[in-house]
Amino acid sequence: MHLGKKIVVVMPAYNAAKTLRRTYDEVMAQGVVDGVIVVDDGSRDETVGLARQLPQTEVIVHARNLGYGGNQKTCYRAALATGADIVIMVHPDYQYTPRLIPAMAAMIADGFCPCVIGSRILGGQALGGGMPWWKYAANRGLTFVENILCETKLAEWHTGYRAFAREVLEQVPWAENSDDFVFDNQMLAQVLWCGFAIAEVSCPTRYFPEASSIDFGRSVRYGFGCLGTGLRFRLARWRLIRSRLFPADRRVQRIESRAS
Length: 260
Description:
- 36% of the residues lie in helices and 14% in strands.
- The chain has eight helices and seven strands; from the N terminus they run βαβαβαβαβαβααβα.
- The chain has a seven-stranded mixed β-sheet with strand order 3-2-1-4-6-5-7, sandwiched between helices.
- The protein starts with 6 loop residues before the first strand and ends in a 23-residue tail after the last helix.
- Residues 254-260 have low confidence and may be disordered.
């Protein structure tokens, strides 16, 4: 806990047996996490068996693969059901360091910002950490376009390391999002749509064989999905379309983001 706030870490898992324990150990070593929820999305390895051996961990198993976005939906529903005040998503592939959990949780608990993301770009070490050059170029290009469309100045739109105050998860219509990888992108746009500020912290990146990654073809589809999200946001802001992702009754006039 921090300042009396219950902190729950959620891990959307798929074939994460090689890195799950290492990620979990580092999560719990931070000393502020009250519980962990692992949601397995139809893994074909020993992820479920290993997860059930972890203390203070709730394990949920999908009977079939629902997709990365579908997995996150289960994560957030389960976290809210536990009474979590702060929910932090950590990928169990150990690509993002759990050592940032105390800082991210403190920023929310202290009232600084209701949404905090770990940016691989802010520290300028993405390429040095092993990010492929084509992913780096796509990341920068898509982030530039989405910042224009969504009227913000995020350093990165494509990180999977996120922390949310309970109120964000209760008000953002994330249940309407895709079950695929573009879920992440849609959710950040919705956070802005609903008027919540987003803070960023510099996050070292790790790319190694066990770390999960989508191939070039799915990356291309993800990229077009991100552009589609930005366009829908802009058209909804102009009131030219109606969108379940960006409902008019949750729209705010002032949208801002913060970087730190």
